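User: Sequence in, structure out. Go.
Assistant: Echoing your sequence, followed by the structure tokens.
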Amino acid sequence: MTPLARAAATASVSYKTPIAGTTLKKVLATGKMPAKYIPHVHALLDDAPVSLLAAVAEQLHDEMDISRDAVWKNYRSLAREVKSKRGIWE
């Protein structure tokens, strides 16, 4: 299972409708998220191990030629948007 697939599973654990890996990939790569996925992204950014987030950033870098810094910037932007309380986003 790829890091992105694990991240999608982590984001979907508490929800009836899961977020697809392809959708999560687009959200994390662009920093733009449809409103219906706010709970999923919130769960991911609040609950996923930092090591998983780093692995996803690496996967996006490898597959989409996005800098790791840009992915982490998107994480921080999304965390602010979903009002994450996790300390690493402050």
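User: And one key feature?
Assistant: Residues 3-85 form one domain.
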